[in-house]
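Let's practice the habit of predicting before peeking. Look at the sequence and jot down your guess about where helices and strands might fall. Then scroll down.
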Amino acid sequence: MKLQHCWVEEGEWATVSKVACTVGNVSGYISSCVWFFVLLPQIYWNFKRQTTEGLSLTWALSNFVASLINCFFAFRADLPLFSRISASYMPILHGLLVLQFLQYHNNTAKDDDDSFRLAMRLKFALAVAVTVTVLAIEFASWGRPWQDSATNKLQWFAVLLWCIELFPQIYINFSSHS
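Done guessing? Here is the structure:
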């Protein structure tokens, strides 16, 4: 396994020790595997039950948009291989979760509630608008170096989404006493 992004040009940052670099690279590969094996069983479980009951749509949409932004960032910024691996599969897996919300929305106990349906439609509409905007910005700045492009600035939006994404899911978990 080739260690990546461990040495930097003199004057930029301090050189990272080989031990720290090895630990960082190994941790990155482990993290890529763990996230894959966390999301895949959830997708299967939703499919088997034909419902997304107990999951937060806001969590799924936030993760999808953030992982889509990160996909552009990981490849344009030439991040290490483990970052590009997870950046490749995360939008796909989160996209599948979002599609499951669309597919199975009639199978939830709350589907008879008009305000629930309206909130769900508004969340999807907002997510579609944000996704289209992100894609338009990313493709419009494609030829520029990533440091000067919107990709660099949009990554902060992804970080913000990752910071707030868990709150709706935690609320659902506490509400249902899970």
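How did you do? The chain has a mean pLDDT of 80.
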